[in-house]
Please model this.
Amino acid sequence: MTVQNQLFINGEFVDAIDGGRIDVLNPHDNSLITSIAEARQNDIDRAVAAAQAAFPAWSRMQAAERGHLLMKLADAIEANIDELVEIESRDTGHPVRDCRNLDVPRTAFTFRYFGGMADKVQGSEIPVEPGFLNYVKREPLGVVGQVVPWNFPLMFTSWKMGPALAAGNTVVLKPAELTPLSTLKIAELMAQVGFPPGVVNIVPGYGHTAGQYLAEHPQVAKIAFTGSTDVGRKIVGASAGNLKRVQLELGGKGANIVFDDANIKAAVGGSAFAIFHNQGQACIAGSRLILQESIADEFLDGFLTLAQSIRLGDPSDPSTEMGPLTSKQHQQRVLNYCDIARQEGGEILLGGKVPDDVALSGGCYVEPTVVRAQSSDRVCQEEVFGPFVAVTTFKDEEEALAIANGTQYGLGGGLWTQNLSRAHRFADQMRNGMVWVNCYKRVNPGSPFGGVGSSGYGREMGFEAMHDYTEAKSVWINVDAQIPPFYPR
Ligand code: NAD
Model:
């Protein structure tokens, strides 16, 4: 496995001007993978200047040609799947099984989707007064800044860059300091398939320096951010200088409701995927399991048995189903929430600790954890972002809805029921950007993704994202209208 460890600016891999470096560790054993160049303000300035210089030609390029380049990138991702699987797994701790079946194919799928979308964004013609033609163009914004987190670094390259590039913007993207390697590999593939220099610039660096400066930058027209709600608030503040557009995909506390008429076997399997996939490090994780009292014991029997059987271990082993958390610091954060649960009087039904297996003791592992709690407890209100699910119960629909809507967040949530009317009632009344019925965590590049409340605003994916990466321009033509003079003389 060879990894890029420099910044990618104006089509070239370059060192940081100040020569700073950041160590990148493998969370399986905290061994050093590489040390990467650290972008600071002057590197961000270089990257933004390169993106600005590339913008006129890129935005005027025939849209289908931009799309063709994105499709070539998708092909290159598929052709390099083995290397991308290894890079992503070692850098993030995702099991290779997941990288091969989800992260890499879905990244290619999303770039290909937006490749196809490039020439589908159309303006409109407005029926105004006779004699005038009024049409609305959708124009790209300019240089777009993007700041992404460490939980799905490879997939987020396609979620963020796909629509921005298809719409004709140029990009400066800051990956998380913990997990920059797959993003740098994507930059390498972009150069190989022929993206012009400057169209995409990748600047790994710390959030409070490089990320903050990118969000403040006066030449950046939009900042798109995925990460914590606290940093989301800082991004909004940083954007005020030039009133740049902001799109925020922040935290969540997904309500996963199981009614007594649900197919329990399907609900058990779907609920385990909802929380334990990617070690629970997903903003849309089903981190609150809300069970109807009458089936709670039966459901929990099946759920705990399944959770206990999940194969936790070295992510490079193809049979591993759950790997480590992304960093020591994050492992400690999740373990702290296990302590908070105990202090709040929660009952730990499973896990709540690091695994006993000595082979995993050098890594950032936490066992699948199931806690019985009260809906007002911190573990039911705050985002843990780990393999940690809080279980509460309810008597009727009204109580279920009150619990589901009872946090500051509103990203994804779902319910398991055979009752069609109830499914639609909840789809209407859950205060979320996404609702899943008899499934969980479904995502598709055509379907809008994002939240309400403290989960942020703006949408990724689909036409919604393409519109968010363009500005409407209204053009008026006097075709043959006779306009009486406003100041008759
Ligand atoms: P974070 O929000 O601090 O980091 C996410 C990204 O933002 C990283 O690239 C980071 O470098 C950057 N960043 C940090 N401070 C910044 C600033 N002032 N200006 C601009 N960019 C900045 O997240 P974290 O500390 O890595 O994780 C903390 C918690 O955030 C997690 O435990 C989880 O609850 C939540 N989180 C949510 C998501 C999500 O997908 N919504 C992803 C990661 C983390």
